[in-house]
Amino acid sequence: MRIGLLTEGGYPYVSGDARLWCDRLVRGLGQHEFDIYALSRTRRQEDEGWIPLPPHVTRVRTAPLWTADDDGAGHGRRARRRFAECYEELAGAVCAGSDDQADRFAGALYGLAELARDEGGLVGALRSETAVRALERACRAPAALRAAREARVPELLTVAALLERALRPLSLDWYEDDGLGSADLCHATAGGPAALSGLLARHFCGVPLLVTEYGVQLRSHYLAAGAAEDAPSVRALLAAFHRRLVGEVYQRAAILTPGNAHARRWQERCGADRARIRTVHPGMEASRFAEVGEAPDRGDPDTLVWVGRVEPAKDLVSLLHAFAEVRRAEPKARLRILGAPAGAEGRAYLGHCRALAAQLFPDEAEGVHAVGDNPVSFEEIGAPEAPTLADAYASGAVVVLSSVVEGFPISLVEAMFCGRATVSTDVGAVVEVIGGTGLVVPPRNPRALAESCVALMRDPERRERLGAAARARALELFTVEQNITAFHSIYLEIVAHCPVRRVVLDDAGEPLPFAAPAEAHIPGRWTGSPARAVARGGPGWASDTPVRGARLATSEGAR
């Protein structure tokens, strides 16, 4: 089958979200053809280029989210009236305080999409004074959100600009029969603009939509607001828009695949039908940890290991205070912190943690003239002492995770592949990942963290049992192979229940009811057809790049 893979800020770019996971998925499903539709977030991301693509990626089409030139579409009076009506309905649904706005929002969204298709884009219209005035009227309505009623002109301008960016997929020319219309299935690797493109492909072409969320974007919008979103009215309006969009995505998707139970609960609270949700855990490469996991040596029993990005959410301060208590119980204990700081905030936090470690653990020396050695070391992967991740986990008997915020704990799964006993805080998907094969303590509780570490350090048999059970669980649930197998089954399930139907015309414009023979559904180049599918041209600001002899399908029978 042909898969339209929809990404935002990730694959196939060298840097970006979910790049590695998407690459493994595409390479693991070589029996299918993939067309990639990628939205980039920054110029730097585009300048860095793509990773090497496998031969069954037949086409890549890209479009920037970070900028868009005015499409120059000259809208007539009727088009301007249609835009004003649809945008006012959209703004009204976003600003309304009631929850019964789903149909109103959906009608306005698809109305804008149809107008964009007819007129060749809506970039200029979405930035226009008409849009700002429609927002203002919606905010002043009696039933509007309280925060929305406080919005002033600068806030309205900011909201209009951010909504234009979020609605930018409306102006793409991806939704024709030689684009996403030729796919048997759209797979959006995130919510937001990528999923919006899938919604439009479903609306225009009837292509079923699969949405994968390893991190719930709606939750991210609630937790993180940019510098331009500081005003309460801006935050409230954007949160309301994304909530409406997510509700429509969850309502229309054939299947949703969260990466863990935490993301699944978010989807259910936002209206997703539980019967259409399949939890698919991220797949990780287990082979690079096989040597450590299968080795009889289980590391230094006096060494605790922490691995990850250094940032405040990892709560290394609590870990250092917990280790101070561990040292009182086990004077030979050592703590290795291996990781690189995440940005400027991470570098400042690392400096703070180094200072705290120096204060809590003054250099110890055997004599007056000897050089002291701090029991806490801060290192990066690639250093002589830990050249690889596997070497880092191999150096200790117990791996610790001290986070206060966590999604899917990758470092925890890596430790499980290495057969290490673990002590973790109860955040995010930790309990779901551990499943009884490690110790879990409350976050921001140094005493509980210390007591659990000491208990494992003093009981080698228990460490051995937990490590073996953790490795067996990780190999069963969290490998690349299980991830690929799960998505292959889901693809077949969706296509079996949601066949794509298209009208194929001959050269005279007459329908050809049997233009797509049965063997056209078999992957490969089995058939050819002179028929042409119903298509509609139009300018667009996205780029279309065939990949290594790619074929631009003109009909289902030509595939």
UniProtKB/TrEMBL annotation:
Which residue ranges does the record annotate as region Disordered? Answer: 535-559
> According to the lineage, what is the superkingdom?
Bacteria
According to the entry, every stretch annotated as the DUF3492 domain falls at 1-274
Family matches, as InterPro entries: DUF3492 (IPR022622), PelF-like (IPR047691)
Instruction: Provide the leader sequence positions.
Output: none
Which Gene3D superfamilies does the entry mention?
Glycogen Phosphorylase B (3.40.50.2000)
Please tell me whether the keyword Lipoprotein is annotated for this protein: no
This protein's UniProt keywords? Transferase
State a single Gene Ontology molecular function: glycosyltransferase activity
* Name of the featured protein: D-inositol 3-phosphate glycosyltransferase
